[in-house]
């Protein structure tokens, strides 16, 4: 299948056949294996944070920020898990990368991992969408091993999914990591996709020795939080200006730490279809000119709400996943039926009839 | 950098057209929740249907009408043909507080989005000092049950639930913690030998900021007045026979108070749901914790109110088990996706040993 043909299908949220997925993954692997762990790009570019399978919101991003290849994109990782359309999301990104290799760049997030995806929904989704076999999941998680770890924009802005690592003082130390593997629990590669900044608000409370400025072990017993002095030192040593990262939910769509030295970009609005948060994409025009384009969830998501599709919290997740598939299928059937323009899906959704129907369908449960 | 710290606004004020559109949308949502009325003779119920007006209606149901819908936005109640189900949370700053009154008991709830960064700052620096907050806090949500005549109420909210989280080390570590710490120790001693400058000294491998990162809470609701009127009586049980009857549900809500994904090491979530029937109500507050490859925990609090007897029973159960033991139970059953069941708190509760049960009662 031609790439453009794949794109056309994917934009309509149709699944590609298993053989095509396999071929695409193979192609992408060939491309990514040549890339360094750290890629260098130039502005203008639009930086996108976590997507988590919220496919319709990603389409919304291409509406708001401009389509590929007219706009350059840098995605900071976490494409899969939690949302209901992880397969569609990652497949669209893969095909876009193959079609426009210099226009879109994909970093690795902590969810681009075999272990995590088994616990957080991507594995289950692959099984559900590909008739109970896990081969598509295998192809896709194999690709994850090839994704690059960091990106440097205009030689000044360091971009990574999670944050800094005590094992990494210089960019060259990142370049020598062997990245073609499952994300380990330990070491520089793990820290880059896992660690979080921590602003030290209470210097008197817990950190009499000012340790809040440095790396701290998380109370979970693994992983780091990094403080201001770590960031300052890293930026100074590498002659950089600031850091963009994703990895943490923020209600406003972005969060600024250490007076702008570190910024979190979050791009999954109404996260998990229930948080009610905003999301943003960061549009960088030049190294000093930028704009947080803040947006809310795509209207398509609202279709999902009353059915409480997130099988994480359903009373009966096993039968629920079957129901999911049916509902999703129904939805896309509706969608393709409406392309002839006879029914405007948006009108339909906000119509009294629809609302009344969804209100009566809303889940009421004789729990004990 | 000029936009830093200020939310990026598209324009300085709100456009009137947008405002009207928003109002219209809200009105539609609200209207849609009024069910079509089965009998054609009666027009939409007056804005505030009271027990007396509905009682004189011709569409009398089998049971006597005795409850009052307090919120004009509520869809009509059973007399008028439907169940009261609060709307999904409004994203606009519109308040929607569904509420119902039966006898002197009033039940109300509120659902709003997660806290914004200003609210989070306030919580972090004042209200919950010392706790690193969970990722998602639905801090403006609540379910409240009150009886002004008896001067008693109980509310379930996130703030009080999080106040119950211990500000000390829970002792729980993620599965790979010891490997991780040990490898750091080795590395540090190697570094020290080389006199290599490092940001992590051996000291800093001790956890400095101590709080229960699993957010385990034994929260059982906030009473007002604060002096608890519950009396411990473990011989009491919930009247399951009465609850098993499918009486018409007049009011139903289900909400999350807080949730954290434990940096992808599992989940910690507090969920509250309530169903109100003509003669009684049942509320379930469930704290669910799963630390992958370590443990699972379900702390349930059920609150039962019998309206006519003015009797309140509160039963709390704690379930806890090793992750592998619970997973093994599922492996026995079936499935090539065993971890899916461990995302389902009900399944986990049923398959995890109970470690504690307490029952309390108030008889007014």
UniProtKB/TrEMBL annotation, chain A:
The active site is at residue 111. Residues 107-112 form the Serine/threonine specific protein phosphatases domain. The keyword Cell membrane does not apply. It comes from the Eukaryota. Keywords: Hydrolase, Manganese, Metal-binding, Protein phosphatase. Pfam families: Metallophos. GO terms for molecular function: metal ion binding; protein serine/threonine phosphatase activity. InterPro entries: Calcineurin-like_PHP, Metallo-depent_PP-like, PPA2-like, Ser/Thr-sp_prot-phosphatase. It catalyses: O-phospho-L-seryl-[protein] + H2O = L-seryl-[protein] + phosphate; O-phospho-L-threonyl-[protein] + H2O = L-threonyl-[protein] + phosphate. It is an enzyme of class 3 (hydrolase). Its EC number is 3.1.3.16. CDD domains: MPP_PP2A_PP4_PP6. The keyword Repeat does not apply. Its cofactor is Mn(2+). Belongs to the PPP phosphatase family. This is Serine/threonine-protein phosphatase. It comes from Saccharomyces cerevisiae x Saccharomyces kudriavzevii (strain VIN7). The lineage of its organism: Eukaryota, Fungi, Dikarya, Ascomycota, Saccharomycotina.
TrEMBL record, chain B:
Pfam families: TIP41 (PF04176). GO terms for cellular component: cytosol. GO terms for biological process: TOR signaling. Belongs to the TIP41 family. This is TIP41-like protein.
């Amino acid at each position: 299948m031609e790439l453009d043909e794949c794109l056309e299908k994917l934009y309509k949220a149709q699944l590609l056949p298993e053989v095509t997925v396999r071929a695409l993954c193979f192609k992408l692997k060939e491309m990514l294996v040549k890339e360094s762990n750290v890629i260098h790009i130039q502005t203008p570019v639009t930086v996108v944070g976590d997507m988590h399978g919220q496919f319709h919101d990603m389409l919304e991003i291409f509406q708001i920020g401009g389509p590929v290849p007219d706009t350059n994109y840098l995605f900071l990782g976490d494409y899969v898990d939690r949302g209901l359309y992880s397969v569609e999301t990652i497949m669209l990104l893969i095909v876009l990368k193959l079609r426009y290799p210099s226009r879109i760049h994909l970093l690795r997030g902590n969810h681009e991992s075999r272990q995590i995806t088994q616990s957080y929904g991507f594995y289950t989704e692959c099984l559900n969408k590909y008739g109970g076999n896990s081969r598509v999941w295998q192809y896709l998680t194999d690709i994850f091993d090839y994704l690059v770890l960091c990106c440097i924009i205009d030689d000044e802005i360091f971009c990574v999914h999670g944050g800094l690592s005590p094992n990494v003082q210089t960019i060259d130390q990142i370049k020598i990591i062997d990245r073609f593997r499952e994300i380990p629990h330990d070491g520089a590669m793990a820290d880059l996709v896992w660690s979080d900044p921590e602003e030290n608000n209470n210097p008197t409370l817990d950190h009499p020795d000012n340790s809040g400025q440095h790396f701290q072990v998380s109370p979970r017993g693994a992983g780091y939080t990094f403080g201001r002095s770590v960031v300052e030192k890293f930026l100074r040593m590498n002659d950089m200006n600031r850091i963009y990262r994703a990895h943490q939910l923020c209600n406003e769509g972005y969060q600024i730490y250490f007076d702008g030295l570190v910024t979190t970009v979050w791009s999954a609005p109404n996260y998990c279809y229930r948080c009610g948060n905003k999301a943003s994409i960061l549009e960088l025009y030049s190294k000093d000119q930028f704009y947080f384009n803040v947006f809310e969830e795509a209207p398509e998501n609202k279709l999902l709400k009353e059915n409480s599709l997130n099988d994480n919290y359903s009373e009966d997740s096993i039968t629920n996943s079957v129901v999911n598939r049916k509902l999703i299928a129904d939805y896309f059937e509706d969608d393709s039926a409406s392309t002839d323009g006879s029914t405007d899906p948006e009108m339909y959704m906000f119509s009294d009839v629809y609302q009344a129907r969804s209100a009566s369908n809303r889940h009421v449960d004789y729990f004990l | 950098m000029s936009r830093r710290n200020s939310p990026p606004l598209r324009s300085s004020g709100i456009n009137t057209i947008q405002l009207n559109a928003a109002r219209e949308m809200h009105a539609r949502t609200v209207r849609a929740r009024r069910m079509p009325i089965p009998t054609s003779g009666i027009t939409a119920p007056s804005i505030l249907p009271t027990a007396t007006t509905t009682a004189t209606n011709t569409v009398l149901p089998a049971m006597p009408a005795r409850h009052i819908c307090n919120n004009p936005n509520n869809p009509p109640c059973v007399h008028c043909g439907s169940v009261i189900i609060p709307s999904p949370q409004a994203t606009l700053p519109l308040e929607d507080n569904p509420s119902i009154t039966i006898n002197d008991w009033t039940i109300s709830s509120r659902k709003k989005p997660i806290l914004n960064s200003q609210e989070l700052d306030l919580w972090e620096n004042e209200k919950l000092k010392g706790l690193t907050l969970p990722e998602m806090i639905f801090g403006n949500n609540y379910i409240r049950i009150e009886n002004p005549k008896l001067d008693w109420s109980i509310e379930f909210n996130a703030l009080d639930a999080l106040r119950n989280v211990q500000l000390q080390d829970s002792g729980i570590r993620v599965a790979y913690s010891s490997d991780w710490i040990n490898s750091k120790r080795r590395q540090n001693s190697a570094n020290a030998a080389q006199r290599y400058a490092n940001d992590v000294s051996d000291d800093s491998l001790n956890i400095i900021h101590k709080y229960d990162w699993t957010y385990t809470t034994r929260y059982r609701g906030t009473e007002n007045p604060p002096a608890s009127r519950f009396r411990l009586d473990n011989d009491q049980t919930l009247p399951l026979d009465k609850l098993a009857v499918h009486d018409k549900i007049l009011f139903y809500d289900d909400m999350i108070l807080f949730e954290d994904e434990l940096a992808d090491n599992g989940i910690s979530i507090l969920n509250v749901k309530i169903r109100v029937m003509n003669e009684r109500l049942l509320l379930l507050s469930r704290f669910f914790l799963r630390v992958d490859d370590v443990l699972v925990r379900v702390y349930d609090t059920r609150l039962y109110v019998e309206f006519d007897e003015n009797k309140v029973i509160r039963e709390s159960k704690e379930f806890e088990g090793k992750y592998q033991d619970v997973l093994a139970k599922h492996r026995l059953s079936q499935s090539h996706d065993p971890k899916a069941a461990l995302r389902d708190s009900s399944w986990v509760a049923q398959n995890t040993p109970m470690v504690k049960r307490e029952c309390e009662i108030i008889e007014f």
